[in-house]
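User: Structure tokens for both sequences below?

Assistant:
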Amino acid sequence: MIREMRKEDLARIEELEKELFTDDPWPQSAFLYELDGNPYAFLYVYEEDGKICGYYDLWITFEQAQLANIGVARAFQGKGIGRQMLEDCVNRAVQAECENITLEVRVSNERAKDLYEKNGFINAAKRRNYYANGEDALLMIKPLGGL
């Protein structure tokens, strides 16, 4: 089940960030800012049997949407949770009448790139030294049509 993220979820989200993004996880304070201070951020969790096993942060800025962060606990990967969250994210951007949705992904993250490509995202550019460890990112975009 996908539901809105709440403050009481942040400890679990921070655990998942540290598990998934060992070299540069978002701290709990970043998610708190997204929840309380960023009027363009929409945060959701994927919950199964009362346990959060995935989350995402979607920014909707007028006619543009950006998937700022997404993660699925390693123990739950390969079960379609990432796909479900990505579809939910895209549907929310479509409902907001966004023209497109963008995201950045590590060039080495083949599994994520494959998921995004299977869901209509195309490579638009490379962002050099994007991540804290110096790794490049691919900017991917999915046209949505907007109005």
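Moving on to the next sequence.
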Amino acid sequence: MRIVIKIGTSTLAYPTGHLNIRRVEELCKVISDIKNAGNQVIVVSSGAIAMGVGKLGLQERPSDIPTKQAAAAVGQCELMYIYDKLFGEFNHAVAQLLITGEDVENDNRHQNFSNTLARLLELDVIPIINENDTVATKEIVIGDNDTLAAIVAQSVKADKLVLLSDIDGLYTADPHKDPNAKLITVAHSIDDSILALAGGSGSNLGTGGMVTKLEAAKICLRSGCDMIITNGNNPNNLYDIMNGKPVGTTFTEKVYA
């Protein structure tokens, strides 16, 4: 199976911007085990700016572009060092790919990007992809890694895209405000009733939210790729997903008995 795993900022880091060491160690262990079972894994990782915020000792996520880009430049080094170290402990090599909107919108650049990804998978490497926040501006920004992950899943014809977030999935209402909110386990389309359930952005350190996840689901459904939203607080959820067990919210065109 070919699987894309998007790791959100809230999964990687505490609100301080510093690394959640125990969770990231467990996550790299589980992903390594999934890969050992013969699956191909691509990681789309947020967290560069948040890690830079922590490394630079800033009090909050910067709002101006130059400081965001500076934080991303510092944080991306830290992020890849951690991935290289942790995956290396399980004998897996990693590769860094930093892209912008031009790399997916321009046909030639998109093809080059896809070719590189395909070759890395052939070489048994774990590609780790992030938007190039050090140079991305309004004109060339993809904007969020949920969309980027869906584009990657589409490009490599992935079987599944898993979005690890700080929530269990899509609910009938905001579970933080409504005690009667129920988890939607399966959705076969993204219609107006589903879109109406989406709120605003997620954590203060990240850029995503349920709106971006539903947009990612649209891309996946058009590509024949299942997409699952699940809570990144428990990396072992990935095992259940690989075994076809119901976890979080699954967006799929398939109908199961």
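User: Anything stand out in the second?

Assistant: The CA atoms of residues 161 and 227 lie 5 Å apart.
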